[in-house]
Amino acid sequence: MHILIIEDDLDLGRALQKALNLEGFSSEWLRQAADAPRSFEGLHYACILLDLSLPDGDGQTLLARWRREGVAIPIIIMTARAALEERIAGLDGGADDFIVKPFATVELASRMRAVLRRYAQQSRQVWTIGDLELEPKSYLMRLAGSPVDLSRREFQLMLELAREPGIVVSKSALSERLEPLGEPVNFGAIDVHIFNLRGKIGGHRIRTVRGVGYMLVPC
Predict the structure, then answer these.
(1) At a CB cut-off of 8 Å and minimum separation 6, what does 185 contact?
(2) Quick count: other Cβ atoms within 10 Å of Cβ 167?
(3) Beta carbons within 10 angstroms of residue 60's beta carbon
(4) Spatial distance between the Cα atoms of 32 and 213, rounded to a whole number of angstroms
(5) Which segments constitute the OmpR/PhoB-type domain (predicted)?
(6) Are 129 and 162 in contact (CB under 8 A)?
(7) How far apart are CA 216 and CA 201, in angstroms?
(8) Count helices and strands in the chain by DSSP H and E runs
(9) Phi-psi category of 218—alpha, beta or left, where left has phi over 0 and alpha has psi -120 to 50?
(10) Distance CA 94, CA 88 (A)
(11) Helices (H), the chain
């Protein structure tokens, strides 16, 4: 999953990118409010990690603007401001979660997975779509209770489709989400992975919408 980090601290930003990559998240890192996207059209972030204290502005202002404009991407606030009033303001302002610095990266990754489960309307550690079960943390998938052997890339692709079952996910979105640090995956490679997945879970479960992308069919 590809995420956006907005954090001005050099050491923390580098450490976050490295640690979260080990947890299966690729990322883009920005250091100033001015560099944050004005619009998220065409951008495919699964989650935003937002520092409140930026050198050229307040993350709370960014958060308020995004929510006012209808941006629905999950947002987790990262800040050294530990006061109850700050947490309430952040959550009431539209943040999905709030973590106080310093924090353990494993806790942040766990909170991110929880937020993403809620976004995907999955309340448990196991995502269920019909008779498919996926465990994002352990990279396991089962079909009708039986394990399915997937490569890491195949599992990542299934997870992206499972986030929006019944909805077409464009190839461009899949390309940006799948490669560490946001380097796009070739569309041909995505087609090959889809072909392999169909052979493992059944061709009827992944529908092709020509010229657009793929859809996981709940069944």
Answers:
(1) 174, 175, 178, 179
(2) 10
(3) 20
(4) 33
(5) 124-218
(6) yes
(7) 11
(8) 7, 14
(9) beta
(10) 10
(11) 10-22, 59-68, 84-92, 105-119, 152-162, 171-178, 187-201
What's the whole-model pTM score? 0.62
Token readout for 124 is 């448990």
- Look-up of token digits 């464009």: 170
pLDDT digits (tens, 9 = 90+) for 161-182: 988 788 888 888 888 777 654 4
What is the β-pairing status of strands 75-79 and 47-51?
Answer: parallel
* 171-178 helix and 152-162 helix, angle to the nearest 10 degrees: 130
Beta 47-51 vs 57-58: how paired, if at all?
A: unpaired
Q: Please tell me the distance from the alpha carbon of residue 177 to that of residue 160, in angstroms, as a whole number.
A: 8
- The arrangement of strands across the sheet holding 47-51 comes to 26-30, 2-6, 47-51, 75-79, 97-100
**Would you mind telling me the total number of residues written for the chain in this entry?**
219
Q: Per residue in 96-152, pLDDT tens?
A: 898 888 888 888 988 888 888 777 665 567 888 889 999 887 889 999 999 999 988
Separation of alpha carbons 83 and 86, rounded Å: 5
Alpha carbon distance 3, 29 (integer Å): 9
Burial class (CB in 10 A: 0-12, 13-18, 19+), 194: buried
Sheet holding 213-216, edge to edge: 169-170, 213-216, 206-209
Structure tokens that stand for 73 in this block: 């991407």
What is the H or E stretch that residue 206 is in?
Answer: strand 206-209
